[in-house]
From TrEMBL:
Keyword terms, alphabetized: Membrane, Transmembrane, Transmembrane helix
Source domain of life: Bacteria
Residues that span the membrane, as ranges: 21-41, 117-136, 166-183, 195-218, 238-256, 297-316, 328-346, 379-399
Tagged with keyword Ribosomal protein: no
rRNA processing keyword on record: no
Domain DUF6311: residue ranges: 25-420, 445-550
One Pfam family it belongs to: DUF6311_C
Segment forming the signal sequence: none
Protein's UniProt name: Uncharacterized protein
Amino acid sequence: MTTHLALLRPSLPRLAAGGSLLLAVLLGAAVVLGTFGAGVVDPRATGWMLAGPMGPDPVQYWLGWTYFVSAPWSWPLGLNPDYGMEIGSSIFYADAIPLLALSFKALRGVIDVPQYWGLWLLGCGVLQAVFAWRLLGLATSDPLARAAGAGLFALQPMLLNRMGGHLALSGQWTLLAALWLCLSEGRGARRAGAWVLLGVVTSLIHAYLLAMVLGLWVADLVARARPGWSRILSAELVAVPLIAGCGLWLAGFFALHSGMDAPGYGSLGLDLLAPFDATEWGSLLPGLPGARHGESGGSYLGLGGLLLLAAAGLAWTRRAGPILGTFVRVRWPLLVMLLAMLGFAMTHRPSLGGLQITLFDPPGWALGLAGALRASERFFWPLGYAALLGAVALVVRVWGGRRAGLLLVVLLAVQAVDLRPALQRVHGLVAGAPREVPDRLSGPFWARAGEVYDRVRAVPAGNQGTDWASIASFAIRHDLPTDAVYLARIDSGGVASLRARVATALRSGRFESGTLYILRDAASVALAANALDPERDLLTEIDGLHVLAPDWLRILSRTGSALAIP
């Protein structure tokens, strides 16, 4: 009996670690399923994306994917020309997660996937917990501390705020993976290969995440180069950006030749009170004044996270000098990079409690470059996660892993209570959504028009113009290309050129053959009314849209259709 116990004893830590990892996985999945419900995971359920409560972004993703999967393969693979036509680009700019879009398109004919974002959210919740568990393993081997801490990393407004709309940015597990690579041991080819893999995977998810991951890679490269440069580091220096660039190219990132320098850097920055501001996500703390813009609210750490930082502060007072000194001496490149990202997040116009000042005026070229990543508050995420990790490490160092585990269980419960009303609000966005949303433009006219026309134009052309979703949904259901789009970035010069060309056609009455026009402003309606042939063309209002149907009357006469003219 004693012999059997002796044999079993070395495997007990492995069993404990396996159980801890399983608990972390379950906690990560529970955060997503508890927030959104299991129904979103069903690939056939599209109503929660298209019903509208989560905003226009999910509709954009579904349209971009549906056009992409129906189109023939192109080169590079991510091109998506029918979604936008002259102003179209690629699946990358539809924010449809090229990593999954390319994979599921390759499987078309084998499996039908109307939507994969529910699976993506679930996967992100699980991977967030898994990589948090790995990260926390650098600070403690205590199973409870690692599992409860992973749950706290998964139950973060930084993550949940993006899950409520901008779904590709739910892939914040890539940041945890990058932090783990920065802080773990190892220098050789395996470490370089891990960075290459993480870089290309992130390049197929989202550009913001890629910028953060590459920044952390640079910090790690500098740290590993300090003892001396090597051939492996030289190869890695070339391979990581090269392979990540190939991923971007494959996804269609370079299909957009202009329009990346979107204005707005400085207006979507981090307020210094944002990590403590419970206005949008917390229920146990009072809201604080702060910047109110499209990114605000997503940097709150939650009461559980803030109490963890407070506990770490208390621990720091006991052993601050040696711990901090060792970290700065060994990990200074990472610290410098995290602070640089914090500075980028704050921008040249930092704010405190909503009071904003302009420190300096960057040159126009610098603002243009920064405009590619203008929603800069997001660059707080790596520092936010690193701060939580550092807090766990301090608490473990001072009070031990077992006590830290019990503390993290309590803090996880506090976090859940603090965020519960906000989570219920997000749940309400999808709970009552129908399984499918009927097409708004589905009457007899639209059915016939979908058969006889080759494309649909929204006039004037533009990004996320009036009724873009209804027009594009009608077009894709009839396999028609359209320029009614919503894209993350768009070529403004191409839009201006297309508008001028279409306006000339309307003014002259030389309408594009096989084209159905949806006129979105009074000027376009007036141009068409003055130039159309009333014996041939139809200009009318149907379902609240002004429709110009060239040759409509001739088509009906030629086919002998009994369809009533609206």
